[in-house]
Amino acid sequence: MTRPSSEIRARSFSRAAARYGTYRPPYPAPLFDTLEQVSGRALRDARVADVGAGTGIATAQLRDRGARVVGVEPGEGMAVEFRRRLPGVPVVRGDGNRLPLRDGSLDFLTYAQSFHWTDPARSVPEAARVLRPGGALALFWNEPDVSVPWIAEQNARLTARFGEGWYIADHTVPDTDLGLGFSDHTLTWSRRIPIGTHLAKLSTHSLFLTVGPEGEEFLAAERALLAARFPSGEVEEQYSVALRIAVRRPD
Question: Are 194 and 234 in contact (CB under 8 A)?
Fold first, then answer.
C-alpha cells in the first residue's frame, strides 16, 4: 500500500486526542532517574519544556518529579486535551523547529515520542539555543520490544500489511558543533492490560489514524488472533525505551 506522508501523519493526532491520552502508555521511572544521573541535575525545581507534549503524558510525570514544566504542542486538538488533563500546567503552541522560548532559559528540554516529527537540522540548533550551559536535551521513545515472541509476531504482521515504516521512530540526530554530545541508554518495562486497551493504543498510532478501513480491518483481525492466543483477555505489553541524552557544554 502507499502510506500517507509523514506530514499528514504528523497532523493526524489531534482528531484522536482523548483516545491518545487514555490509551498511550507512560514512561518508566528509571528513565527520569537516568536523566538526572547523566545530566547531574535534579528535575525538582528545574526549568523544563516538554516539546510535542501531546496530551501531557510525559509532562505530568515531569511535573510529578517537581519540575517547573511547560508543554509545547503544535496540534490544536492535542493542546485542548492537554489543558483538560493538566489545567495547572502551561502549554504553548509551537514545535521543535521554532521554539517559542527564550535563549538559555531551560535546564531540560524533553521530547517524548515526538522528536522524529522535527527537522533535526532546525530542531537541534533550537535545542542548543534554549538550553543553558549544562542543560540537557532528552529524546525518548516507548517502542514495542520485539524480543518478546508475541510482539515480534504482531510487528511482522504489521510490516507485512503496511510496510517497514508503519512505526515512525527515527533516532538519528546529525553531528553538530553546537556543544551537544549524545549518550544512548535503553530501558525495558511492561504493563499488563486488556486486549481491547492494547488495540485501542495501537489505533492511536499515526498509521492507523490515516489509512482508514484497511487499519480497521487489521485491528479486527488482530483482536481475534490475540483473543485466541490469550484466553485470559489480557496481554503483557513490553517496551524497549530508547533514551538519548545530550548535555550542553559550556560556551
Answer: yes
Residue 214 near residue 1 (C-beta atoms within 8 A): yes
What is the distance between the alpha carbons of residues 74 and 94, in angstroms, rounded to a whole number? Answer: 5
Question: pTM above 0.85?
Answer: yes
Cell of 251: 560556551
In tens, the pLDDT along 93-123 reads 999 999 999 999 999 999 999 999 899 999 9
- Domain 6-144+170-191+241-247 in CATH 3.40.50.1010: no
In DSSP notation, 218-247 reads HHHHHHHHHHHH-TTSEEEEEEEEEEEEEE
Question: Cell 491518545, residue?
Answer: 20
- CA quadruple 182, 144, 8, 2: dihedral sign: positive
Distance of CA 47 to the CA centre of its chain: 20
> Mutual orientation of helices 213-229 and 195-202 as an angle, nearest 10°?
150
Domain boundaries, the chain: 6-144+170-191+241-247
- Which one, of 181, 176, 110, lies nearest residue 141 by Cα? 110
The β-bridge relationship of strands 234-247 and 182-194 is antiparallel
